Each structure stands twice: as structure tokens, then as C-alpha cells.
Amino acid sequence: MKGKRLGAVACAVLAGLLMTQTAHGQGPAAASEQTATQTNAAQLDQMLAPIALYPDELLAQILMAAGYPLEVAEADRWLDDPDNAALGDGDLAAALEQQSWDPSVKSLVPFPQVLHMMASQLDWTESLGEAFIADPNAVADSIQRLRRQAEAAGELRTTPQEVVTDQDGVITITPTSSDTVDVPDYEPSVVYGSWPNPDYPPDFFPDYFGSCAYDEFGYCWLAVPIIAPLWGWDHWDWRRHRLDIDQDRFARLNHGQPPVGGEVWRHDPSHRQGVPYQAPAIRQRFQGAPTPQNAPGGARGYPPPAPQPSPTIERIPPTYESYGQGADVRAQAQRGASSRASPPSYQPRGGGGFSRGGGAPSGGGRIPR
Predict the structure, then answer these.
(1) Which residues of 173-202 are buried (b: 16+ CB within 10 A; e: fewer)?
(2) I want to staple 286 with a disulfide (CB 3.0 to 4.6 A). Which of 60, 190, 269, 331 is the partner?
(3) Report field, pTM of the whole predicted structure over 0.85
(4) SS3 category, 190
(5) Where are the domains of the chain?
(6) What's the confidence (pLDDT) of residue 331?
(7) Any bridge partners for residue 264, and if so which?
């Protein structure tokens, strides 16, 4: 049922935005507009709860990569190969240069637990990606709203693993070390305190970090070495609700192709690899989008926005409607790998390289501490 709840988010966000742009703010129409906006915010908070407290740059990479679910699944399967999983530092960066994935997907490979969570929860990943494509402003607002909630609950503060800064109402989270990123695993129902939207409880994906000791604040930490070419090429501009991109570093990760939005991130439909967009407005916007090879110079891979369809409340799907695309994306990623009879079981690996702890999620409930 959780996947079905998530599937409607991008369409609901789009519908709420369209209604907000056209409503006159009077009588029953204004009340309907307010209700839809509140519902969209609740759905976004539900979906973003598992990752809103991640370090800023990692969170940005997740949001960008979620728009390319097939490449996420392919990268996750690429790490099934023990030779690939054993790569580190320069060897990993060199191997990833050969892949055609978007730089955001490549940059998640050093975080195999996070990548595997996204590949295993493809319905959630797709919904997350489309919500961010549809309205980065609303997603950024949800992240800040969740961070303020955790801070008010006394569960978000500077620790030996991260620096939490609250300046003029904007909360940023950065690693304490220039060599390591500490990724937090936490239970949303604990760190956010009393959840304000019981109809949309926070999503929770346990068991992807393997054995993990929780501290007194309800977190456990996964330390990941920073691989310089794959880290630090994106930066949140929270004031303007956007992601700024280092164009040169992005291009080096993207076979010389610059980002389609220049210094500001925009979704690149050429990395969608045929996975259909589910939200009608997004599908219309990117239908027949040019690829980097045939696009004209400043608009490479990014078509001009198409006129939006007329707003209507019926555009919001039922809360529990699902896109149902997760299985299709998995099937596409698994083509050519018929020798695998079943999905692999991930166990922590000793020694160098990467390791993936845990397996499929076991559902909700408190994590023993």
C-alpha cells in the first residue's frame, strides 16, 4: 500500500500548483485550493522524511538521480559484480567514466546502501524524481520544513559526524570532515517527534545499512570516503530554491556534455532511457525531447516548457493510486541478465571496496537500540 500512496505524489503536486496559479481565492474554490496545497505538502513530507536529514550534497544527488530510475537500477546491478564493488578511489572514478549514466547516478555509486535502497524502492524513487522535476521549490520547502521539525524535537544538531547550521531560517547539513561523508540512518517517527499529518505517516525503509549501532539521538552512521571527482559538484541555493552546478566538473563526469541547464540544475530527459513520465504535465513537457546529440546549442537535452493543460481538480489521482512503474523499470534493468534467477542477497563485505548491508525492507516499527 505504501508504494500506492507514493505513486500519486507528482501528479498531486502538479495539480495543486496549477490550481494555485488559476484560482481566484474566493469562496469554495479558495477552500479547495488550500486543502489541495496542504495535502500536497503532507505527501511530500511523507516521501522526503527518510532522506531530508541527509547531508545537503548527498540529498541533492539523490533528488537528481531519482529522475533516472532505470540508470539507478543499472548502477545498482553494476555493483553486483564483485570486481566493481571492490573498486576504490581513482579506480572507481575511472571505471565510472566509461558508463553513460547521469553524473548524479555515478556520484551515488560510492554510497551503495543508498543506491540499493533507491533501486529496491523504485515506486518511491520514481515519485521522488517526478516531484522534484515538477516543482523543486515545493521539495526544497518540504526539506526545510522537516529539518525544522527535527530541530524543534531536539533531534537535529551538530555532532561529530555533521555540522548543522540554522541561519535566517535555512538549515544546512554538511560533513565535519573533508575526507568522509557520514550518512545517517534514522527512524522518522523518532527523530521528527510528533508527526503532524497522521493520514500521511512518514515513509521508512529500514535494513539497508546492515548492522548499525544507534546513538542516544536515534541515529546510526555510515562513514563513506569522499571520492573527489564524484563529490562537491553541486550546491544548494536554498534562498532561490535551486541547485547550482559546477559546469566543468559535471561535464567531466558526463563525457564532455555540459549540464542542460547551465549553472542551474535541470532534468535531462536523455538519461530517462525510455521510462515514461507518469505525471501528465511532465510527460507533455518532455515528450519528444531532443537528445544531447541532436539538440541545438544552449537547449541541449532540455525542450522549452510546453503549455500546461487546463487545471481541474479531477487531475489529482486518488491518494492510493500507484504509477506501478517499479516492476517495469526492474525488468528493463534486468534484460540481458537472465542467468540470475532471483535478486541477489546483499551482505556486508570485509576488506576494501564497498559493502551493502541488509536486504529487502522488513516494514515499519521501531528499530531496536
Answers:
(1) bebeeeeebbbbbbbbbbbbeebeeeebbb
(2) 269
(3) no
(4) helix
(5) 2-334
(6) 59
(7) 244
